[in-house]
Write a structure and sequence with these properties.
Serine Threonine Protein Phosphatase 5, Tetratricopeptide repeat; 68% helix; mainly alpha
Length: 598
């Protein structure tokens, strides 16, 4: 049976192996220097700390380093590893259910339905989502080993394996935090009549599992997830308003119900659900009522000690870290969050199939084959949507449009040379994703639409002054102002020229030519004293420029600073003795000086 499950898993995902790196894959793999060597081991176990998918998740980073050692950035090896992890999870589900229910049919059906369901495909097709699947492998390994320890004469070895697996999971993803609780809930549901008895018999296991929280605490204290887990302000991640516990929870009511619907009708899957948005209680109420009803059913089952209630506990507890009250401000939702919770739904369907089989085995088998085939076909179709970055981002824009999706689609369209489409999506992106304003402003500038570029770049700086691209934005703003200033000078609109040149100065303090142009515009507007200061700046920047000293001399002469005019005219002639214009300025300055002495 295990071989059949493995072969089926490989067959379902065979068409995903050539899918390119997308989204966070780029920062986590090709642009991640820490995975380029396996030795010293401290290097791959020290992932970058800038908010990448691998930040604070050293075991996942190490797995990428192994992939890199075997094949560099050849994408197929990474996909094969993801498929292997997914199949491993399915085999553990099979093992846990069979040990619990002593029913190979239900165990196999549970594992297969879960494995082939398209809602789980993101954790396989999207390489960076290995953080989820590898954590799930450790999570299920922890549960499996703890269950085996209940019956094995070598319980100590299984307990040690459970603790080691739990510690490894903590180094994969923070959602592993609930594993010790699930193990305790499983014991109380299936093995012991009271919590007191469970604690007396299993204190060593519980203590070891609880100790693994120290691993997670150490990783969290280093702050690697600061840019996702609610430790930054809204403006730092492109949000219009702050996302606290309550707004985030309201968002989750809608998303969790959406996940459940996708489990029932897995169409229109989405890679990126974007950022949290303001949501009123009235908007969330219908979803909240539905989830509250499911929660009440679970609680009622616990009260009457129904073993089925454990499936509800599994669903809510494994989903809680990412989809409850801890704001993940960079990502309102993700289908991979259902990777573990969906196991409860698969088991529930398998149990329903067992009830059907009591009446007709053939009917139950036929229903299972039809369901598994339909789900597998949907997963194979979903895999094809990952065939290119353009195709996957197009699905996001079509199915769940938001600013970041438009920005990411624009980026891959630009790489493909589809400039017109790129601009359309950037203009859509800025509606609710301020970070895209830099890209839009930069593209407008480089395509020659300087006047339209300026307001986008200015607004980007107001909204994201601390963004890594803020310096580039300031430089572009300076260049744009300089261009517009030159255009205004050409049409003799000196007022506009002065305004734009002054806008260019803050990022071009060392540009003598800019100060010269500003001085010329000021002089043409009879603002002689200001012109003198501009020419003085140019001469200070380029003290060996005859032109700079000549301009300053001429402005000083107009300002009736005769001695200064003489001084700089002589310096200009020293640097360029053949300059007839400077000779004339010097002659006029000397004549003025002689008249003043009379």
């Amino acid at each position: 049976m295990a071989v059949c499950i493995a072969v089926l898993g490989l067959a379902i995902y065979a068409n995903s192996i050539a899918g390119p790196f997308v989204f966070d894959d780029l920062a986590s793999i090709p642009d991640n220097p820490s995975i380029r060597s396996l030795w010293p081991l401290a290097q791959p176990l020290s992932p970058p700390n800038r908010g990448e998918a691998v930040s604070g998740r050293p075991l996942v980073n190490l797995s990428f380093a192994v992939n890199y050692a075997l094949g560099g950035v050849e994408v197929r090896g990474y996909h094969l590893a993801n498929i292997a992890v997914h199949v491993g999870c399915a085999l553990l589900i099979f093992g846990i259910v069979r040990l619990t229910l002593d029913d190979t049919g239900v165990a196999a059906a549970s594992a297969v339905i879960w494995m082939v369901h398209p809602l789980e495909s993101e954790a396989v097709d999207y390489i960076s989502a290995r953080t989820e699947s590898l954590m799930a492998l450790c999570y299920l390994g922890t549960v499996y080993a703890s269950v085996r320890s209940l019956r094995s004469p070598r319980a100590g070895r299984w307990i040690a394996l459970a603790v080691a697996s739990c510690a490894a999971g903590m180094a994969c993803k923070e959602s592993m935090v609930t594993a010790p609780l699930i193990v305790a809930a499983y014991d109380r549901t299936f093995a012991f009549r009271s919590w007191k008895e469970a604690l007396r018999r299993r204190w060593l296991l519980y203590g070891g599992l609880a100790a693994t929280w120290i691993v997670l605490a150490g990783l969290i204290m280093s702050g690697p997830r600061a840019h996702s887990a609610g430790f930054v302000t809204a403006s730092e991640v492109g949000l219009q308003t702050e996302t606290g516990v309550w707004p985030y929870l309201l968002n989750q009511t809608r998303l969790v119900v959406h996940y459940l619907w996708l489990w029932v009708w897995p169409r229109q899957l989405v890679l990126d659900y974007g950022l949290p948005h303001p949501m009123s209680f009235a908007d969330a109420a219908p979803y909240a009522i539905g989830l509250a009803f499911l929660g009440l059913i679970t609680l009622a089952g616990l009260v009457v000690r129904s073993q089925l209630a454990f499936l509800g506990v599994w669903f809510f507890v494994t989903l809680a870290p990412a989809s409850s009250v801890i704001p993940i401000v960079t990502e309102v939702g993700a289908e991979r969050r259902m990777y573990l919770p969906a196991i409860a739904l698969a088991i529930l369907i398998a149990l329903a199939g067992r009830q059907v089989s009591k009446r007709s085995t053939m009917a139950a088998v036929a229903l299972f084959v039809c369901l598994a085939s339909a789900l597998a076909a949907a997963t194979i179709a979903r895999n094809t949507e990952y065939r290119s970055a353009i195709s996957i981002w197009t699905t996001v824009v079509d199915r769940w449009p938001h600013g970041r999706a438009h920005q990411n689609l624009a980026a891959v369209l630009q790489a493909a040379g589809r400039q017109r489409e790129m601009m359309t999506h950037l203009q859509e992106a800025v509606r609710d994703f301020p970070e895209a304003r830099y890209d839009l402003g930069a593209q407008l500038y480089f395509t020659g639409d300087t006047e339209q570029a300026l307001p986008q770049l200015d607004q980007f700086l107001r909204e994201r002054p601390d963004h890594p691209k803020a310096r580039d934005a300031r430089n572009l703003i300076g260049k744009a102002h300089a261009k517009l200033g030159d255009a205004a000078m050409a049409r003799k609109d000196y007022a506009s020229a002065i305004e734009h040149y002054r806008g260019a100065v803050p990022t071009n303090q060392g540009a003598a030519g800019l100060w010269t142009s500003l001085g010329i515009a000021l002089a043409a507007s009879d603002r002689i004293d200001e012109a003198v200061e501009s020419f003085r700046q140019a001469a200070a920047i380029e003290p060996l420029s005859a032109r700079a000293h000549r301009n300053l001399a001429n402005a000083l002469l107009d300002a009736r600073d005769v001695d200064g005019a003489v001084q700089h005219a002589r310096e200009a002639l020293r640097l360029n003795p053949q300059d007839a214009v400077t000779r004339e300025i010097l002659r006029d300055a000397l004549d003025a000086s002689a008249k003043r002495r009379r």
